[in-house]
Design brief:
- With 127 residues, this protein is mainly alpha-helical.
- The protein has one domain.
- The longest helix has 24 residues.
- It is globular, with a radius of gyration of 15 Å.
- It starts with a helix and ends in a 7-residue tail after the last helix.
- It is a multi-pass membrane protein.
- Keywords: Membrane, Transmembrane, Transmembrane helix.
Amino acid sequence: MDVALWIAAGLLAAVALTGGISKAFMPKQKLAAAPGGEWTGRASAGFVKALGVLELLAALGLVLPAVTGIVPALVPVTAICWVALMIGAMITHARDGGYKFVALNLAYLAVAVFIAWGRLGPASFTA
């Protein structure tokens, strides 16, 4: 179980890192032209960059506390925050009719729920 949770956290961290880098450092116009990025055309540049920073923090929060052993309880907290972020992403993509992105965000949400459940329960770092 522990190995599966580490793999899930690593994969989700990679997703968060990729999304965070693109939102934080790519121009808003380039994001708006990309598939699934249409919503960025309606959002302020500051909001898009703030989401990017949140995703970068999520990438760190999913693995760094556990790797360093410093407040490893932040891993399930980060996963729960990711769930909230994915709910917002699903609503945003559904408004644009991007249902394949809704399904993708639902998959990311499911992975985050698995991490939160596992790290708060059977494979807790405090156990």
